[in-house]
Design goal:
It contains eight helices and nine strands. The protein is an alpha+beta fold.
């Protein structure tokens, strides 16, 4: 990945990118701290795959919860919070369980949904669109929420998928620290793999709390990302999809 023409995977003036230069400045004149802030605000991602260490699952979930509880208790203590208070005392444990069992459970491949496929006996050969799927993920730069909606579509190549599995695939890849561009591509790639077709489209429209609650404090903007492949690369097919997404949703 490059930022301002400088690769983040190569040394900066002879110093590795993850270390500080002896005078505190990188090659492009930015301080190391400024460069870190720029990367965060740029929402860039170095890879389509979520960055994971080879030993990511050497520890079981119970051990991870115990360790995160210990470290988060230390963070709260450093912040000056009184952990003897009844309201705060259980927070480290609650946060640890939330991290492992809920908001980051998509890091574990064991939680990946198994697709339910059926023969396309009706010979339905038009696009199927599942829109307004809830997206709740966390920005990997500041660990604050990204909240929005995903719209996914595909054209059957002979198989159809259970509708709830579309939602579950979106949810699985959302339950990890994310960058919206990566999330969009990961969902699209998984649908293409599962459905054995290139005729897949994914759009995400989301608000980033790292934009609205810090930094520029813009509460009105949202970010839209899209992945079109196969027949959705055709302008007419894309426009048809966008018309469907723009229609009012059914209320029950």
């Amino acid at each position: 990945m490059k930022l301002n023409g400088t690769s983040l995977n190569t040394p900066l003036n002879g110093t590795p990118a993850n270390g500080a230069h002896q005078n505190g400045y990188a090659k492009n004149g930015h301080s190391t701290a400024e460069l870190i802030d720029e990367i965060g605000d740029a929402h860039g991602a170095a890879s389509i795959d979520t960055p994971m260490r080879p030993d990511a699952f050497d520890l079981d979930d119970a051990t991870k919860i115990d360790l995160i509880e210990e470290h988060f208790r230390e963070i709260m203590s450093i912040l000056g919070l009184d952990l003897t208070d009844d309201s705060l005392n259980g927070s480290p444990r609650r946060v640890a369980k939330m991290y492992v069992q809920e908001i980051f459970k998509g890091l574990n491949p064991a939680n990946k949904p198994e697709p339910t496929l059926f023969d396309n006996k009706f010979r339905y050969n038009e696009m199927l669109v599942e829109k307004d799927i809830t997206v709740q993920t966390y920005c990997e730069h500041h660990f604050v929420p990204i909240i929005g909606r995903a719209h996914v579509a595909y054209i059957s190549s002979g198989k159809v998928i259970g509708l709830s599995k579309l939602n579950r695939i979106v949810d699985y890849f959302s339950k990890r620290p994310q960058v919206q561009e990566r999330l969009t591509v990961q969902i699209a790639d998984e649908l293409k793999r599962v459905l054995e077709t290139e005729d897949v489209a994914v759009l995400i429209d989301a608000k980033h709390l790292c934009v609205s609650t810090r930094g520029v404090h813009d509460v009105n903007s949202s970010t839209i990302t899209a992945s079109y492949s196969g027949k959705f690369s055709d302008e007419a097919t894309r426009q048809e999809l966008l018309r469907y997404i723009g229609q009012p949703s059914v209320t029950i």
